[in-house]
Specification:
single chain; about 290 residues; alpha/beta; Rossmann fold; 2 domains; 4-stranded parallel sheet; 8 strands; about 40% helix; elongated
């Protein structure tokens, strides 16, 4: 069966960390032996690949493939899944322009992204967002309100704000609630869009609604770019196994697929650099 055109995680997955469970690594080793698996290809983001790196150091023959819609794995230009997700998010933002305009509302659209704002940045630019808020830079609620009021003065009676789920206000500006943590000790995010919309409405008097894109961003048919990238990364993973290059990850550099050490790929999270965010601000501040 050809799976290239199918979305989702075909092999299935679980949000678990074997290093947080008693005897977890041993269970991984025992299961690989039971299933007669000589090698392990770890497909995922920083958490999955982080576990893969630890298992590799324990002697398990592992190679990695970067797959995350956050696009935050180091040493690779793109992770497959990202292009499809920003395409879905862009389509949603585009479609919401008409309802925002017809009702003279500001819509706050919450996009996935915990530590890295790549999805919000690119979907926000492509979808024509008036304001883009990322995890990399705490936002000033007064500045956001000023942009919206300035638009209104110019006769623009609606606005679209794209905000990453991991975006936070400058200290002391808005109250954020603590939430439960997952197996990797990350707080389960969500809710910044609702709180931001409420605060904007209170400060400006502009009618404001929030929309959480949620898992729509992760669904649907993969884009051509992701189909090709996923296939090429898979071929490289098989090639690394054939050559005995374990403890490494397939990565996209320019147009080439190369092998990089897992340790190096995990050395630093790939977040949006300040200059890229400043570039985006030119558009929404002068809108």
């Amino acid at each position: 069966e050809d799976i290239r055109m199918l979305g989702g995680t075909i092999l299935h997955t679980s949000r678990t960390n074997p290093y947080k469970v008693a005897g977890g690594p041993k269970k991984v080793r025992d299961n690989l032996k039971k299933l007669e698996c000589d090698f392990l290809i770890a497909i995922g983001g920083e958490d999955t690949l982080g576990v893969a790196n630890k298992l590799s150091k324990e002697g398990i023959k592992v190679v990695g493939v970067p797959k995350t819609i956050d696009n935050d794995v180091g040493e690779t230009d793109y992770c497959f899944g990202f292009n499809t997700a920003i395409t879905r998010a862009t389509e949603a933002i585009e479609n919401l322009h008409t309802t925002a305009a017809s009702h003279h509302r500001t819509l706050v659209i919450e996009v996935m992204g915990r530590h890295a704002g790549w999805m919000t940045l690119e979907a926000g630019i492509a979808g024509g967002a008036s304001v883009i808020l990322l995890p990399e830079e705490p936002f000033d609620i007064e500045e956001v309100c000023s942009i919206l009021l300035n638009r209104k003065q110019k006769g623009k009676h609606y606005a679209i704000i794209a905000v990453s789920e991991g975006a936070v206000p400058k200290k002391g500006q808005m109250e954020l609630q603590a939430k439960e943590k997952d197996a990797f000790c990350y707080v389960r995010l969500g809710g910044i869009g609702e709180r931001l919309a409420r605060e904007i409405e209170k400060k400006t008097g502009i009618e404001c609604r929030h929309v959480v894109l949620g898992h729509l961003q992760r669904a649907g048919t993969p884009t051509v770019f992701d189909r090709v990238l996923g296939t090429r990364l898979g071929v490289k993973a098989a090639d690394m196994i054939d050559k005995g290059e374990f403890g490494r990850m397939a990565a996209l550099k320019g147009t080439d697929i190369i092998a990089v050490p897992l340790e190096k790929a995990l050395g630093k999270l790939k977040t949006v650099p300040k200059e890229r965010y400043d570039e985006a601000k030119i558009f929404f501040e002068s809108d």
